[in-house]
Specification:
Helix content: 25-40%
Largest sheet: 6 strands, mixed
Shape: elongated
CATH architecture of the largest domain: 2-Layer Sandwich
Strand content: 15-25%
Mean pLDDT: 89
Number of helices: 17
Distance between the termini: 60 Å
CATH class of the largest domain: Alpha Beta
Low-confidence stretches: 1-10, 450-463
């Protein structure tokens, strides 16, 4: 920020020590800043403004320093450092903004912020990271109507916040106001100045995570130790030339994890985001998406499927959630789960959840040394399991596992009138994960003749 040129009375008044102010002068300054006063002005100025006897209590109550950024759709907090001393402004301050679809940029924002915001919007659209440029930047709803004084601002260090805020907004998500970043962009992440003042302000705002360019991590770590602040530092990758890749770890922390009460579209967008790593995506699927997927699939089952069926036969594969999904959708009395030793650890949590299912299904697990062992021994294992059961009460899950195994079950193992099941889905091209909104059970009854093991099954139903 540069205060070399002051053009009006408020600019001249800002270039002085807060200790020199009278209460009347302080309240005049605060009034001119309006709802931005508590965000931008030095706490000493606000304290003196509250002492002005001519100011009503309702007004003076608005002049306590801000201590937390608002959490709202499209929110982003832009962090600025004040390089001028003495000054009535904080040594660093934050402006709470929000991205909104279908509006123009607010003309009351600082010109430098508007310019940076437009460049961010165009860049993300050109790189196909957003599907529309029909977005604008406005003050946070907590600020409402405001006009920033005509003070020259340098806004480039707000690039990371604006980009991340817009990406989250386009997904319908919310940002965590306790996660901040400061970084500029010139064909990649570049360093910023005055981290000392920004980190000191972050401590005041109870910020939990602060992301900086990788090369500035040692400097920032030293400052945090000096401040005795409980702030976890994160790095912005300066080796990446694509914005989303450079901000990946920041976005992971910034996004507020949706709950089961949020719209399914919002939860799906969060799950399909490239910012979510594999393990976090799997946990989110189980905790936040699974219940609704089960409900939707139950409603789409054909009425002829026995309720409850005697048994479900399935495999714990690289997508082990399918085991629990099948049990909860069909609600069988018993379930045989086959798995190989190499996936025992990866499938443990879901197999445990399957054993603790909500439909009182008895789960029997059958491990195999490897896939070759499974292929060799699965037929006698399954036949022993289903021998006492009526064929019309047995369901074979053809979704998980190798397709040759599925075809063997369908063409050689399934008895006449038993049921075959496949969970139809589409794959999201970005994350390469199944789109939860596309999941639909396809169920049909086997028509294989015992004397003709290779005759095809006749599909009986599809959604």
């Amino acid at each position: 920020m540069n205060f070399d040129h002051f053009q009006d009375r408020i600019d001249r008044k800002l270039c002085r020590s807060p200790d020199s102010l009278r209460p009347q002068d302080a309240s005049d300054i605060a009034s001119r800043f309006g709802p931005l006063a508590r965000w931008c002005l030095d706490p000493i100025v606000l304290e003196k403004a509250r002492l002005d006897p001519s100011v009503t209590r309702s007004v003076s109550q608005q002049w306590f320093p801000a201590r937390r950024c608002p959490q709202e759709a499209g929110g982003c907090c832009l962090l600025f450092a004040n390089n001028h001393a003495p000054s009535l402004l904080r040594s660093a301050f934050v402006l709470p903004l929000r991205w909104r679809r279908g509006i123009k940029f607010s003309p009351t924002l600082p010109p430098a912020v508007i310019d940076l915001g437009r460049r961010v919007l165009n860049m993300l659209f050109e790189q196909k990271l957003i599907d529309s440029i029909n977005w604008g930047l406005d003050w946070s709803s907590e600020i409402g109507e405001a006009r920033f004084p005509p003070i020259p601002l340098e806004a480039e260090s707000g690039w990371a916040s604006l980009v991340a805020g817009l990406l989250v907004a386009t997904e319908g998500g919310h940002v965590n106001p306790a996660v901040w970043a400061s970084a500029a962009w010139r064909d990649g992440i570049v360093e910023v100045d005055r981290l000392d003042a920004k980190l000191a302000l972050a401590k005041e705002f109870a910020v939990t995570h602060f992301f900086v360019p990788r090369n500035q991590l040692p400097e920032a770590d030293t400052m945090i130790r000096r401040l005795d602040a409980s702030i976890q530092l994160g790095e912005l990758d300066q080796a990446k030339s694509k914005p989303r890749e450079a901000l990946k770890t920041y976005l992971q922390s910034l996004k507020v994890r949706p709950t089961i009460h949020d719209p399914i579209e919002q939860r799906t967008a969060y799950y399909l985001s490239n910012d979510l790593d594999h393990e976090a995506a799997r946990t989110f699927y189980r905790d936040v998406l699974m219940h609704e997927i089960i409900t939707r699939c139950r409603l789409r089952l054909p009425p002829k499927v026995p309720a409850p069926p005697e048994a479900l036969i399935t495999i714990a594969s690289n997508n082990p959630e399918l085991v629990l999904l099948g049990i909860e959708v069909f609600q069988p009395r018993r379930c045989l789960v086959l798995y190989t030793a190499d996936l025992a650890a990866d499938t443990f949590a879901v197999r445990e959840a399957a054993r603790e299912n909500s439909v009182r299904c008895e789960v029997i697990e059958q491990p195999f040394a490897d896939l070759a062992h499974l292929r060799r021994e699965m037929l006698p294992t399954i036949r022993d399991f289903i021998r006492p059961l009526p064929s019309h009460g047995v369901i074979y899950d053809l979704t998980p596992g190798p397709k040759d195994v599925s075809f063997t079950w369908m063409l050689e193992l399934a008895s006449p009138d038993s049921w075959l099941y496949y969970l139809r889905h589409s794959i999201d091209p970005g994350s390469r994960r199944p789109d939860p909104l596309s999941l639909a059970p396809v169920v049909w009854q086997s028509q294989r003749s015992p004397s003709m093991p290779s005759s095809p099954a006749r599909p009986a139903w599809a959604p």
